[in-house]
Amino acid sequence: MNKKFKDIIIVGFALFAIFFGAGNLIFPPYLGVLAGTEYKKAMLGFLLTDPVLPILGVIITAKLGGAAEDLGKRVGNNFSKVLGTVTILTIGPLFAVPRTAATTHEVFVSKVFPGTPLWVTSLIFFILTAIFVFNETGVIDKIGKYLTPGLVIILLVIIVKCIVDPIGVMNVATENQIFLKGFAEGYQTMDALGAALMTGIVVSDLKRKGYLNEQERVKLVKWVGLVAFLLLAIIYGGLIYVGATASKIYTVQYTRVDILLGTVQHILGSAGKFAIGIAVSLACLTTSVGLSAVAGDFLSGITKNKLGYKPIVLATVFVSGLISLAGVEGLINAAVPILSTVYPIIMVLIFLGIFDKYIKYDMTFKGAVLATFVVSLVEVLNSKFKILEGFTDIIKTLPLSSVGFEWLLPAIVTGAIFGLIAYIQDKRKIA
C-alpha cells in the first residue's frame, strides 16, 4: 500500500468518524420505520442532505483556500472569523462535545453499569478525549486508525445481519411525501454546520504529512471526501433499511432512540444492547476528539498562535466536562436557537461556494447571507419566544419551508438584488 493511498484511507476514516456522531445513529432507523416499502426514496432524500452537503462543504472550503474562515471570506474577514468562532464554540465546548459524554452515559453506561453517576462517566470520557487530542500531529491518525474501524465493524455487522435475516416484513409508508421526509431528516443532522471547520484540520494534517502543494492537497481532499462519503452513505443507507424491516413492529409513537435500541436488539439479541452501546460510545468519542482538535486548530489559527493549540484543547475538554453535567436534554434546549440561526448561513455559503468563480461581486454573498440571517432569526424568535408570529406565517408560505429551506428563495432574491446594485455601481464608476 503506497503512502498516498494509506493517507487517504486514514484521513477519510477520520473525517467520517468526526461527522458521524451518536446523534446520527438515531435518525436513519426512524426514517426507515416511516418509509417501510418506500425506503429507497427516503434513502435518496436523506443522502442528498447528508452526506452530500457536508462533504460538498469540505471540498468547496478546500478549493477556496483550505482554512475554515475561507468559506465566508467574501462576506468579510471579520464576519468569517465571528461565524467560525460562534460555530466552533457551539459545536465544541458549549454543546456538541459535552453532549457526546452525556449521550454515552445515557445510552451505554447507565444501562450496562446502572447507578454510575454522570460525573464519573464524564471524567473518564474527557480524560480519554484529552489523551487522544493533546498531540496535534497525531489526532487524525488516532481517530482513523484506532477508533473508527471498531465503530464501522459493529455497524456493518448489524446491517449485514439484517440484510441476511430481516427483522420482519416491511409496512407501507406512513408518510405521503417520504422523499421530502428523508430530505428533512438528513438536514436535521446538521453535519454541514462544521464542514468548513473540519476542512481546516484535514488540510493541516495533510500539510504535516508532506503534501505542501495546494493543488495536490485539493485533489487529496476530494479523495478523502469520497472515502468519508461512501462510509456515511453505506451506514446511513443500511440503517434506513434496518428501520424499514421493522416498520410493522414500530410506529411513530416510539422515539428515535427506542427504535434504534429495539431494532438492534431484534438483530443481535441480548448482545444488541452492549453492541449498540459500544458503537454509540465510539461515535461519541471520535466526535469529541475531532471537535476538540478542530477547536484548537481554528482558535489558535485566528489568534495567530497567541492562544496555543494545547491550552485551547485542554480548556475545551475541561469546560465540556463541566457542561456535560447538564445532561442531553438541557444541552439540546440551550443550543437549538444558536444552531438554527447559524446553520442556514453555513448552508447558503456552501451553495454560493459552488459558483464562487462565476459570482463577480462580494455584495451577492452579503445580500444572500443577510436575508438568510433575517429569516432564520425570525423563525428562532418565534419558536423560542413566540414573537413575530405574523412574519412566521409569511415565511411558512415560502417554497421548501416544510423541509427547513425557507431561507433559500429570500437568499437567492436578495443576493441577486445586491449583486445587481454592485453591478450598477461598477458601471457608473467606469462611466
Description:
The protein is mainly α. The protein folds into two domains: 3-340, Amino acid/polyamine transporter I; 359-431, no CATH class. It contains 18 helices and no strands. The protein has helices at residues 3-19, 23-35, 39-49, 52-64, 77-91, 96-112, 118-133, 139-164, 178-188, 195-208, 214-245, 256-268, 271-302, 309-323, 327-354, 362-385, 389-395, 408-430. Helix 2 packs across helix 12 (256-268) and helix 8 (139-164) packs parallel to helix 11. The model has no long low-confidence stretch (mean pLDDT 91). It holds the Pfam family Branch_AA_trans.
Total of helices = 18
CATH-assigned homologous superfamily of the largest domain? Amino acid/polyamine transporter I
- β content, as a range? under 5%
Query: How many β strands by DSSP?
Result: 0
Main location: membrane
GO molecular function, one term: L-valine transmembrane transporter activity
Organism: Finegoldia magna
Membrane topology: Multi-pass membrane protein
Summarize the structure.
It is a multi-pass membrane protein. The chain is mostly helical and 431 residues long. 76% of the residues lie in helices and 0% in strands.
Write out key terms for the chains shown.
431 residues, mainly alpha, Amino acid/polyamine transporter I, 2 domains, 0% strand, transmembrane helix, amino-acid transport, L-valine transmembrane transporter activity, L-leucine transmembrane transporter activity, transmembrane
